Amino acid sequence: FLRVTKQYLPHVARLCLISTFLEDGIRMWFQWSEQRDYIDTTWNCGYLLASSFVFLNLLGQLTGCVLVLSRNFVQYACFGLFGIIALQTIAYSILWDLKFLMRNLALGGGLLLLLAESRSEGKSMFAGVPTMRESSPKQYMQLGGRVLLVLMFMTLLHFDASFFSQPSQQ
């Protein structure tokens, strides 16, 4: 099974890491007027500027996804998608919403993983096996990406911070 699927797994992994951008870009296409009206009402910027924002967002996300999936200009695509994350965080005023902020950081972690995967490294004595003395930027990017990706799952947890809460008795 692994021998047959080995060639497809990197493509599936890339698709999973950018699936949020792909879904958001497609949703913007189908909800164009709602998105434009929301930006226009929130920022009071006018029809033309709001339409330009939605178009830039849609084009940036879909183009970035196509470039990542085709493995062309992956670094530029990742930086463009980082820009989309920053743009959406400001435009939709979600910087202070902890849940959305953690999810955006997780998206950034996925992009860091894609960026690390696209970087080339010099040949080592044992292919694919990290050495103890080597610490490359790629390894730090992978570590950072994995840590940030965990934040998405942290948003699913609900903690009860009260020490004095009693379990409900029925």
Automatic annotation (TrEMBL):
Residues annotated as transmembrane: 50-69, 76-94, 143-164
Annotated membrane topology: Multi-pass membrane protein
A Gene Ontology cellular-component term: endoplasmic reticulum membrane
Superkingdom of origin: Eukaryota
Gene Ontology BP annotations: Golgi organization; protein transport
InterPro entries in alphabetical order: Surf1/Surf4, Surf4
Ranges in coiled-coil conformation: none
Localization per Swiss-Prot or TrEMBL: Endoplasmic reticulum membrane; Endoplasmic reticulum-Golgi intermediate compartment membrane; Golgi apparatus membrane
Keywords: Endoplasmic reticulum, Golgi apparatus, Membrane, Protein transport, Transmembrane, Transmembrane helix, Transport
Family: Belongs to the SURF4 family.
Protein name: Surfeit locus protein 4
Organism: Pan paniscus
Species lineage: Eukaryota, Metazoa, Chordata, Craniata, Vertebrata
Encoding gene, per UniProt annotation: SURF4
